[in-house]
Design goal:
Shape of chain A: globular
Number of helices of chain A: 12
CATH superfamily of the largest domain in chain A: Isopropylmalate Dehydrogenase
CATH class of the largest domain in chain A: Alpha Beta
CATH architecture of the largest domain in chain A: 3-Layer(aba) Sandwich
CATH topology of the largest domain in chain A: Isopropylmalate Dehydrogenase
Oligomer: homodimer
Strand content of chain A: 5-15%
Strand order of the largest sheet of chain A: 3-2-1-4-11-10-5-6-9-7-8
Low-confidence stretches of chain A: 2-7
Structural class of chain A: alpha/beta
């Protein structure tokens, strides 16, 4: 890495070239594609140098060697996160997180092992002051408006204070990145009435009432896709289950349509006619469109992609990192957390 | 009520004639329909006598007056459950639950206020020995096999011991009612590995390992509709959110298809062609097909229906109550709980 760049005001983004099921191919080419679309940042590829160079050469992609940072180890998708980041100090994930920690880079993007990426971001980059738990946000398709779920699975057994942090961080993210002036915040619960919920959400409700955030109260599972609120607050245990269940519903429906199409030519023709429509409708659920989820609350920009990330998804993750840098998201989160630090 | 019947071996089922958004119409006619299909039980209609009689007369339905039990009050869908069951002692829900408590009836079926029905069943009928929390089970559509979620929302902040109870009760329900010899049980969690989960599910995992139930470990949100397991165990907070989110996904997709069809004649024709297929596919999600959810763990049979229950749904609820009686489900649950009472 060219250390002379470290005081450069250009955003420095590191991409984990070894991250994802189709690495290094998709990670490398997606990252280079982002640079083609927007060259107002510096791109670094971290991973096995020879493999990175091979992908670049095979695809005739232009990329200056001095922006390749060698990392001899790879954390696999099946590795145990916290063990792996200790056992593999020269892995692309650990090396990337360290460069952000050392202020040699501003952002780290990876479609690799999600748990390892969360652990490396939290333990190596470190948490911002006032953050008990960093949070991942996942954008949901909605009938109208934009909506993200915080926490989408970064941690479980969140305490009320953590839900408050998610609301503060999620609100800033939706404002700065999705342009929603005063994001509506709702707690995911089992009824809309103020008194509904479990012990943790009821207490979080009380805390959120004390803020001047645009907290609208409790929402139900059926409200998420309506876009009733812009920020859905929940424990990561619930958020993870909701997201995976949603994917499961889509898989179930696709399988059913496929089975229907398999029952003879007429059915096949019918389904064929609406295939375009279905693709259009289901595209809102396509993670590749937005590419990756941000991990908020760590000291730096960290974006984690789906293992199956396409080149387009990686490209979008890099551009999102750039946007988060330009909008000084980390600093704004820190300021807002500090404003609300007296709430209890 | 004809008390001379109280020692009769015929199953005595009470239907809340005032329960549901379309009561007394749907409740009364659905119940009478069940009696037409299977007359090996005694049906009692509880509610405002004059209203019940009017529905019967208007629809020329044959029903002996002596099986109508007057209850002068009605708990509305918006009433606060625990307050309402105290404030309205002569409501159909309270009167119905009391008749089961007094062993004058075996089963109580209502499509009324869910919370009030749960409260009345739990507080008036009472819990079975060894039950900390009664549980509601909701049948899910699956790619293969049958699967119910316990708890689907009867209680929140369930403790590990409660999840064990749900597993025991759910397993018996799926065996006796759905004919699955050795139901596979999974804990809904954030990963399949044994160590994944929150504090409560991890401890429940340990407890379930000690049973000889067919416990297969943790499952993820995306596994529910695959039918990986027959009994999904979770806290009612999670179960309620999952179920409502699932309904939300379907509503979202239907709205999207409708919007697509609205964009011109060609689109409308295309969607029209597959409407039958879609209806067929989505019918698995139709609560009216199975009608109502059982509340297990109370001392009697209690079945709670959706507020929007159709006549068919009410009919199915009544027939389900009859089946639970014939299969001695309450006794079997009590026996099984007693077998596992030493697990901790």
């Amino acid at each position: 890495m060219d250390n002379s760049d470290s005081n450069n005001s250009k955003c420095r983004i590191i991409v984990d070239a070894m991250g994802g099921d189709f690495a290094p191919q998709n990670a490398v080419l997606g990252a280079v594609q982002a640079l083609k679309e927007n060259n107002f940042f510096e791109l670094y590829l971290v991973g096995k140098e020879d493999e990175i160079k091979k992908v670049l050469k095979d695809n005739e992609a232009q990329f200056d060697d001095k922006f390749i940072i060698n990392a001899s180890q790879v954390i696999g998708m099946g590795d145990t996160p916290t063990t792996a980041i200790k056992a593999k100090p020269d892995s692309s994930i650990v090396v990337g997180a360290k460069l952000v920690k050392e202020k040699k880079a501003d952002a780290f993007v990876s479609a690799g092992n999600t748990g390892a990426m969360m652990a490396a971001s939290t333990l190596i980059m470190g948490r911002l002051p006032g953050v008990g738990r960093p949070t991942m946000g996942s954008l949901m398709p909605t009938s109208q408006g934009k909506c993200s779920i915080f926490d989408a699975g970064a941690s479980v057994d969140s305490k009320p204070q953590h839900l408050l942090e998610y609301a503060i961080m999620g609100s800033i993210f939706m404002k700065e990145i999705h342009g929603i002036e005063n994001p509506k915040i709702g707690i995911l619960s089992v009824g809309e009435e103020d008194s509904k919920g479990n012990a943790v959400t009821q207490e979080a409700f009380r805390l959120l009432k004390k803020t001047n955030l645009n907290f609208v109260g409790n929402i139900e599972g059926g409200d998420i896709l309506k876009g009733t609120v812009n920020v859905v607050i929940c424990d990561g245990f619930v958020g993870n289950i909701v997201l995976k269940f949603g994917e499961g519903v889509l898989t179930f429906l696709k399988d059913k349509f496929k089975a229907y199409a398999g029952q003879g030519l007429v059915n096949k023709l019918k389904i064929g006619l609406v295939q375009g429509a279905m693709r259009e409708i289901l595209k809102d659920f396509d993670y590749q469109e937005h590419g990756g989820v941000p991990l908020l609350g760590v000291n730096g920009i960290s974006i984690i992609g789906h293992g199956r990330s396409s080149q387009k998804a990686v490209k979008n993750m890099v551009l999102r990192a750039k946007e988060m840098y330009d909008k000084e998201l980390v600093q704004k989160i820190q300021d807002s957390l500090s404003n609300y630090s007296n709430i209890s």
